[in-house]
Amino acid sequence: MIKAKKSLGQNFLVDQNIIDKIVNIVEIKNKNILEIGPGTGNLTKEILKKRPSKFLTIEKDYDLVKLLREKFESNIKIINKDILKIDENYLSDETLTVYGNLPYNISTEILIKWILNINKKKIWFNYLILMFQKEVADRIVSDYNTKNYGRLTILANWRLKIKKICDISPSCFVPKPKIKSTLLLFEPKINFVKFMDSKNLEEITRIFFMHRRKMIKKPFLKLFNGNQNLALNMGLDLKLRPQNLDFDTYFNLTKKYEFLRS
């Protein structure tokens, strides 16, 4: 019997009702699938019943890789690597529908990596159906002027349309995590603000939210070399706090930042 490894953040989804809900969120017959961290294959089995065209999985744990090969043989292609060390743009020539019960300890890192690494010419996925710790999901779907609003909210909503599907109880997993989970559906946005380098948005938000309870005056002056006139021209009140600025303000700040450095 395979035991979950705490070091890899493993919690295996076993609730059949939740599994059925997940596989029915979008149509996947004849589609190309990628599953991140399939675990013991409970979701994998149900996805295969939908008759996808191609099925890739990424699983870091070699004990689980051996189990999956025994259970599914040649029906899936298993990549035994760390997801953070893979360039997702080269996983497949075809667009992928992605499922993932992401390890909670690296879920934010995975999502930010994917967002910043989206290829400008060809987006590698059509849907991301991902499970997060509820606290992280609440940050992803929050709005400005709320306590959950932050870097992750801004980065995710810049490139992705996001829909919350449902919260999931700890009792749906083995072993039971100590916290609730949340299932989110992501689609790539066709229309979005374009930057010279997406990492500039990451830089802007990182510096602003480094001290999220303090006024934005100090990070603003740091980024814009003490130019308070720029804030006046933008109609930006430097007494506000980072969570008081909406998405468009951060996008505009990033454009200004790039222009001044170009």
Describe this structure in words.
The chain folds into two domains: 6-188, Vaccinia Virus protein VP39 (Rossmann fold, 3-Layer(aba) Sandwich); 199-261, rRNA adenine dimethylase, C-terminal domain (Helicase, Ruva Protein, domain 3). The chain contains ten helices and nine strands. It has helices spanning 16-23, 42-49, 62-72, 107-116, 134-140, 151-159, 199-208, 217-223, 228-234, 247-261, and strands at 12-13, 32-36, 54-58, 77-79, 96-101, 125-133, 160-168, 173-174, 181-188. Helix 4 (107-116) links the parallel strand 5 (96-101) and strand 6 (125-133). Helix 4 crosses helix 6. It is elongated. The N and C termini lie far apart (58 Å).
The helical percent reads 25-40%
Q: How do the helices and strands follow one another from N- to C-terminus?
A: EHEHEHEEHEHHEEEHHHH
- CATH hierarchy class name of the largest domain: Alpha Beta
Beta-strand residue percentage: 15-25%
The helix tally amounts to 10
Low-confidence parts? none
Q: Largest sheet, order of strands side by side?
A: 4-3-2-5-6-9-7
What gap, in angstroms, lies between the N and C termini?
58 Å
Mean pLDDT: 93
Q: State Rg.
A: 20 Å
Largest sheet, in brief, is:
7 strands, mixed
How many strands in all? 9
> What structural class is derived from the secondary structure elements?
alpha/beta
User: How is the CATH topology of the largest domain named?
Assistant: Rossmann fold
| Number of domains as seen in the coordinates | 2
What is the overall silhouette? elongated
What is the CATH superfamily classification of the largest domain?
Vaccinia Virus protein VP39
Tell me what the CATH architecture of the largest domain is.
3-Layer(aba) Sandwich
